[in-house]
Design a protein that fits this description.
70% helix, mainly alpha, 4 helices
């Protein structure tokens, strides 16, 4: 169920998610951030806006300090840094 968007969950999946998220709040945070990343990639927004949203996503993930996300975080950092330079350098990543 955690690989799906919440709007595609069945009723029983919604109930299970509520239990899992109540027992493991960090999973809820990570799930929310994964959905945020999915939304950025699936939306038809301006490239500059997408880069800024990716930078914010990166900073949120970095604040969590979960090492298993380092690979995707390094990829996002590289993309946002390179694209920010192409767009005038106005995106800040920690």
């Amino acid at each position: 169920m955690l690989y799906k968007s919440p709007n595609k969950w069945s009723e029983s999946q919604k109930e299970r998610a509520a239990i899992v998220f109540a027992e493991y709040p960090e999973i809820k945070i990570v799930y929310s951030l994964s959905q945020k990343l999915r939304k950025i990639y699936n939306s038809s927004i301006d490239k500059a806006v997408a880069i800024k949203k990716l930078a914010h996503w990166y900073n949120d993930m970095q604040n969590l300090g979960i090492r298993s996300f380092n690979t995707i975080m390094n990829t996002i950092k590289s993309i946002t840094r390179d694209q920010s330079q192409n767009l005038g350098g106005n995106v800040k990543i920690n």
